[in-house]
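Hi there, hope your week has been kind to you so far. For a while now I've been wondering how a particular protein folds. I'm sending you its amino acid sequence along with the backbone structure tokens. Could you read through the record and tell me how the tokens relate to the sequence? Take your time with it, there's no hurry, and the full record follows here.
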Amino acid sequence: MDWKKTVLEEIDKRQDELIDLCCKLIQFPSENPPGDTRDISKFITDYLKEAGIETATHESEQHMFNLLSTVGTKSDKHLLFCGHTDVVPAGDLSRWDFSPFAGEVKDGYILGRGASDMKCGLGGLIFATALLKRLGVPLAGELSLFIVPDEETGGHFGVPWVLERGLITGTAAVIAEPSSPEHPTIGQKGSAWFEFTVEGTPGHGSLSPFKGDSAIVKAAKAIEVLQRLTDMKPNIPEEMRDIIEISKKYVREREKTDVSAVYDHVTVNIGTIHGGTKANVVADRCTIEVDSRVPFGIDYRDVLNEAKRLLLEVGIDAELKPIGFRGNANWTPSSEEIVRYLVESITDVSGKEAYGVLQWASSDARHFRNHGIPVLQYGPAELSTIHNFNERAPVWQVVQAAKVYALTAIKYLGTTDGS
């Protein structure tokens, strides 16, 4: 039996079922916050049960469920297919051209919040796993679906919660996060998010700046000086230089504007500013939230230390409080077996050259690497619509991704009949 050929043919025959599954997943409004995944989790467990797959459910926080399902044969290889059920809020509904939770197909796209990030990828993982079970593919290792509830707000109750408790482990993992069709992401930048509060002295607005000390004016100086974090020079490790140049070339070819500098620079985004009470009162306090991403060759703690030094330079002595994720850049080398098989599978399915690239954001991949599990990300997406209004994903990419997932599982785990 040529299982690879059989599975690819079956996905083609059943692609309407795959697309319908993705649409149904989108129809569950699993926005995070609040992160309630009860309904979508029940739907997934019922779907898998119909395919003969049992699911273990672990509630990590109220109404947040981690789902673990395993098929195949116990061996020294255990592949994890990971995806998250939560999505970012839809936001202002008047700015959508369609209902964000319609989960419908139009003009070759699946429409709705989470289509690209990442319910179509999640649907592909679920469909591919269920199909391998239904066809009786005799996998020579274990394949587990690892479906989590809490990625969009930092992931504390999802992947890290499960791995820290030893509820599942593996020898490799694939996350269905959105990517380019021929370029899975094999590494992510680090992160150093923080907030700080600038103190001032209140006074009557009619007397400013002669009386009172405006926290907002001081915060403006802080914002300006923090832009100099991008001047930090990374000491790029020798083993990272080639993949960084490859990633830069990829971005220059794909993006309408050249943002390739993000790969070897610290980035700084002033995300929110909260300060003052009224227009006619000198502000006594202003709080700023900062999203800083850290390249290979710089420790995130050095970024925080430099931020502290820069603030002192303009007379601001403030505590940098942690928010979100803090950690260093991390990657899975292209030589890892799971990377080689998935990249090879993309070429098998698409007929195009495929290779891994680095991502300038961060993701759940870091948690797998922290536990010694090689991991990469690959999923269908219209990248410009992620976290945006009118989110969508191309149908052809959804089908291609499902094929890549199935092929990767067969190649990595092998089959007991040796086919």
The chain has a mean pLDDT of 96.
